Amino acid sequence: MDQEKGMSIFKDVFRRADKNDDGAISWEEFVAFFSDGVMGKEELESLFKEIDTHNTNNIDTGELHDYFCKHLGQFKELYGLVEEFNTKLSDVLMSTSQTYPTAGRMDKFITRFLIREIWNQMTAIQIPLESASESLDEQAKQEREDIKPVHLSDVKKKDGDEVVPGRVGRRAKRQTSNQSQCSVNLDGLTNSVNPLALTSQVDRLTQLLNRLEHSVDLGNFVDEDLNAVESDKLLLLQRDMKVKEDSKDVFRTSLRDYIEDTQKLLPCLSISVQFCTDSGVFSVYEVWQSAEDHDCFSENPENSFSDRFKDFLDVEEPIQKVNFPSRWWKRD
After folding, report:
1. Distance between CA 209 and CA 256 in Å, rounded?
2. Alpha-carbon distance 155 to 151, whole Å?
3. pTM across the whole model
4. Which of 226, 286, 222 shows the shortest CA–CA distance to 255?
């Protein structure tokens, strides 16, 4: 499928809605993601069937893209501008991360000021979007007071459906902004609705480009470097652990939270999870700009990995650390 300007948003929507990463949005996943506290069950069923043009009872990326593209109208230009801004912002932040450590104190102050002002401008844009969203939701609720609410059974988890925590990384820190993500609370079906808050996409996609799509690039490997300094090294951490059988569900939930909290930090370049089914061992891999950055993060008790997970673990192996040349880390 050709990617039109500004249409990457729908690939992002698909990744966040496809919670089990099977490449399709089921009815349960559709309700869990798109329910906004206004649309009723019958209305959502009708919308689901309209989008599912292949009649497979699942929505694929193309179907989602094609449906919403037909209804974009004047919003299409806005999505294009946001996509351009994401790309430019990612380039600037990446360049800043390289030059900031060696800059003078006054230059560092100016950089912090400029970034803070960009954030303030984006917040100013978010305010009218949130107001518009809330106003439109309220009008829609008043139009149909007889709407049948969405039931918990509509968003129940499928049997055998299990999401490995590391997949959160591949979905690029889904739902980073609690203020702007439209979601359903399964316990009380309470809704936090700000579906038009485009600024959340700037934050989420920036972190996607800056932290999660980088990988070790052996094409940059050199067998001899006589001018290296210690600051040119990155830190790789590996944590291996076995989880108590009765704690696996709550462990996965806590691990998702840890991954999302850690990915918000610029010094953390990447974090991922691997689960070995034969040994039952979870391995968490983290790449940091330096050991000092990691130590500073871990000093906060709320961020301490051991404090978060000690009650869930059956066996925890000593953490393994290795420094490797930063030039091995793919930047483009």
Report:
1. 20
2. 8
3. 0.44
4. 286
